[in-house]
Design goal:
The protein is α/β, with parallel strands linked by helices and 441 residues long. The protein has 2 domains: 15-146 and 329-392, D-Maltodextrin-Binding Protein, domain 2, CATH 3.40.190.10; 147-328 and 396-440, D-Maltodextrin-Binding Protein, domain 2. It has 16 helices and 14 strands. Strands 1, 2, 3, 6, 7, 8, 11, 12, 13 and 14 form a 10-stranded mixed beta sheet that branches. Strand 7 and strand 8 (188-193) form a beta hairpin. Helix 7 packs across helix 8. The longest helix has 22 residues, at 3-24. The termini are far apart.
């Protein structure tokens, strides 16, 4: 064999090798030539809501892979995921809210910044989604946001001679004196706003979280590069609640006091107490002027009382606030450590978080997308436009253990109401307990 023949064979060998790589791998754009098989996706969204988005997605990628979705009940999601991964039959991908990220950090495979840069993440997704950015990579790629909003009963407002809804928290004191009504014995028969207690206020932790975030306190986040975590030990989480060195250490204290004033009969803002029904039930029944709920509550409100004359607005803000914020649950798609083809699963996650699928999913579930390019387009629908505006300003925090932190917030509220401790002490105790929960993870 002469030198030329050897050269030709070498060239053809390289071409063959390149063909194998091309046909068996996925490109950075998510385009794949060789079929890689079925990939299992788990989430809590109803199966029907993903039928069209996934059918479109799978059709577009039919030569590369197929994503098969399974709906898991919220109540059993954690246990089923643990069991399935342990048996080697778990999903390749999961859709998780930010509240379940910490609890499932040991089950997901972060996407390194070499694979999907921090710059691209920041450019592509709303600010609140940065919560998914850990030191060693992206925990989940954002899909959609479920922001906290203000629902208001238009009939109650007009009957009370109030033309429009409040945009500032400072307006609520005067509002309560005009809209709250009491029956025999001084019992509240019509409430202005449901705040001030724990047991009968729907989304109470989210409402308090929104007030904390608006005060400049992020509650819990990933520790930053080079930062010594105040959570103790080698925890990768930093607990900001109760941290006196924060930007506004008295902010959370004043926020908690504001929340509790609505259940204090001695205050002009008094409008709520523990003897009243659940806030959601009261709003459905037309006896509550303002209800703080998520965008996902909208359909249930309409279904529960089709004749209720209500509207939706952005969550009120603090006086003089330079940055408008609200709380929001941010849902992302993560690759599990149980995937047998993690590299391709990462590419699928990137594709699912792209504009095409995100737009289709957003339309199907009536939730605002997490992508900046889609949020900037907005919506012409008057209700959806509020959802979009609220999604843009949504922020959240890393909940170490949701059920346990529920108890922390309950104790924080009820210990002050009972007169055991002050607002400041309650905040400090809550911060220490969240630190202990973060250390468990």
């Amino acid at each position: 064999m002469n030198l030329f023949q050897s050269f030709v064979l070498a060239v053809f060998g390289l071409i063959a090798l390149a063909a194998v790589v091309i046909f068996s791998a996925t490109s950075n754009s998510g385009t794949e030539i060789g079929f890689a098989g079925n990939f299992k996706l788990w989430g809590t969204l109803p199966t029907g809501s993903l039928l069209v988005p996934l059918e479109e997605f799978n059709t577009a990628n039919s030569k590369s892979f197929k994503v098969v979705y399974t709906q898991i009940r919220k109540e059993t999601f954690e246990n089923e995921l643990i069991s399935a991964l342990a048996s080697g039959k778990g999903p390749d991908l999961v859709i998780l809210p930010e509240t379940l990220i910490v609890e499932n950090m040991d089950k997901v495979l972060p996407i390194s910044y070499d694979y999907y840069s921090a710059r691209n993440f920041s450019d592509n997704f709303a600010d609140g989604a940065s919560l998914f950015m850990a030191k060693d990579g992206i925990v989940a790629l954002p899909l959609y946001i479920d922001p906290l909003l203000m629902y208001w009963n238009k009939d109650i407002f007009s009957t009370g001679g109030v033309a429009s809804y409040p945009t500032k928290w400072s307006e609520f004191e005067n509002l309560a004196s005009r809209l709250t009504q009491s029956g025999r014995g001084g019992n509240i028969s019509q409430a202005t706003v449901a705040m001030g207690s724990y047991s009968n206020v729907e989304h109470v932790k989210d409402i308090i979280s929104a007030l904390f975030i608006q005060s400049g306190n992020g509650v819990v986040r990933f520790s930053k590069e080079g930062e010594i975590s105040n959570s103790g030990g080698d925890s990768q989480y930093t607990v900001l609640l109760g941290d006196s060195s924060g930007e506004d250490p008295v902010g959370p204290e004043s926020a908690l006091k504001f929340f509790l004033d609505f259940s204090n009969p001695a205050k002009r803002a008094y409008s709520w107490n523990v003897a009243l029904p659940n806030s959601q039930t009261a709003f459905y029944g037309g006896t509550l002027g303002v209800y703080f709920g998520h965008a996902s509550d909208y359909a249930e409100i309409v279904k529960s009382n089709p004749h209720l004359n209500f509207d939706v607005a952005v969550l009120p803000q603090r006086d003089g606030a330079k940055i408008r914020t609200t709380f929001g649950n941010i849902y992302g798609i993560a690759v599990t450590r149980g995937s047998t083809k993690p590299d391709i699963a990462k590419q699928i996650a990137i594709s699912l978080s792209g504009a095409t699928f995100s737009r289709s999913l957003s339309n199907a579930i009536a939730m605002p997308p997490a992508r900046r390019d889609l949020l900037s387009i907005g919506s012409k629908d008057p209700t959806a436009s509020v959802f979009y505006s609220s999604a843009i300003m949504s922020k959240s925090w890393l909940d170490p253990l949701p059920l346990e932190s529920d108890e922390v917030f309950q104790e924080m509220i009820e210990s002050v109401l009972s007169g055991i401790i002050t607002e400041r002490d309650a905040i400090n105790v809550a911060g220490k307990k969240l630190s202990n929960l973060a250390n468990k993870k």
